[in-house]
Each structure stands twice: as C-alpha cells, then as structure tokens.
Amino acid sequence: MTKLSNNGTYIVQLKWSNPTLIQSPYLRAGKGFDMQVIFLNASAPAPNAKSVPKTETNVSGETGREIGFTQPGIIQRLMPVDSFDITIYDYNGHILWSKIHQIPRAGSHFERVTFPKVYKGDITIQISNIKSAATKAAGGTTVDSVKFTTRVS
Asked: Is domain 2-47+75-152 in CATH 3.40.640.10, yes or no?
C-alpha cells in the first residue's frame, strides 16, 4: 500500500505478504504479521531512463545475442527519517498494537506486529510523529503523519 503523507513530504509504503497465512511460520494466523515501512521522498522526480544511466553489462544469452535491460522504476527514492510512531486500530477504534519512537534505517523499517489475541477484520494503521532532521534543515515541516486502512485475514 502506498500513500502520500498529510504534509506531502513522504510517500509512505507498507509492504507485507498477503494473505497473512503465508507470513512467518512463527506467527499463528490472525495473531499478527511482518511488515516493512518505507519512507520515500515525495518531491523527488520519479526515476526514468534519462535520470538513471544504463550501467549494467550486457551478457551473451543462450541464443548468442547480448541481453540486458535498465529498469529505473525499481530504484527507490528513500528519505531519511529520524523516528516515527505507529498504532494499529481495530474497526471500533480500539488499539490492537502500538509502538512509539521507532527508528528506521535509511528510510526503511521492518516490524513484527503481534496482536494479544486473534484478530481478523478491518484495521487502521496510523503512522504519526514522523520526524526528520533533513526535512527540517531543508525548511520543511518537521512532523508528519499518514493513515492507511486495510483488512487482515
């Protein structure tokens, strides 16, 4: 899932395996999931063939022809983040899981979400208090947030 943060500073991506049944064997179904939070620079231009030079080496394939390709779209424009808070709510607005002051590495953070009891249904994932010294130094808003809604099964 991908969303623009409230202040437009970050494009925030949440990634996890779906269905959650194919998650880590250490997590029982409905008890949680492994998730990656990625902070991308919302103001950076998207990578394209002009902005990303071709750097791969062509190799000869079985047919004897040289093969190789450039796929600039897979390059992520990671944005440094100093810390953030994350809370997951159930469909009634009750907190299922929460952590504060999470410190990502190079704009990316892995998290194992574990619920105290089995939960399946609609959830809201609130990422708040996103702080970055780099954004502040550039004269941008110092605190940002983003909200996702999804379903766990």
From this structure: no
